[in-house]
Specification:
- This protein is mainly beta and 133 residues long.
- It has a single domain, classed as Tumour Suppressor Smad4.
- 13% of the residues lie in helices and 38% in strands.
- The longest helix is centred in the first third of the chain and has 10 residues.
- The two termini are 27 Å apart.
Length: 133
């Protein structure tokens, strides 16, 4: 429930930002509400932001939520719990081995903990860690 309350509080001042990404050597620039990188399907509170991600496929899943209106964000938010947001036109999904994300003044978080400021490069090393289901 904390995530839901925090999200609603954040909506008052939330604005899209300019992100520059390098996806396996392909450069993208996007005005986006969110850029998320993961190798599992869900984030804190059960949000299935990287729906379809597989822990053992050797890829990182990069999700970009391009600019949306605030009513659009409110309408889409519940879909994050079921993974059905993937049908939204603002949703963009890439599978890569390496990603660099850059944006001015953005602090990153990993597993709910403050990680560091952008830019940040993340790589996937296939088979580097055994995962038991």
């Amino acid at each position: 429930m904390r995530y839901n309350v925090a999200t609603l509080a954040e909506l008052r001042t939330f604005r899209p930002m300019t992100f520059t990404l390098d996806l396996d050597g392909v450069s993208l620039k996007r005005e986006a509400m969110l850029v998320a990188v993961g190798n599992g399907t869900s984030y804190g509170g059960g949000l299935r932001i990287t729906e379809g991600a597989l822990l053992d496929d050797g890829f990182l899943d990069v999700v970009i939520i391009n600019t949306m209106t605030k009513p659009g964000l409110i309408r889409t938010y519940p879909k994050l719990f079921s993974g059905t947001h993937v049908g939204e036109p603002e949703y963009e999904h890439h599978r890569v081995r390496s990603v660099t994300v850059a944006a001015a003044g953005v602090v990153t978080y990993a597993d709910g903990e403050r990680f560091g400021e952008l830019p940040l490069t993340i790589t996937c090393e296939p088979g580097a860690l055994g995962v038991f289901a």
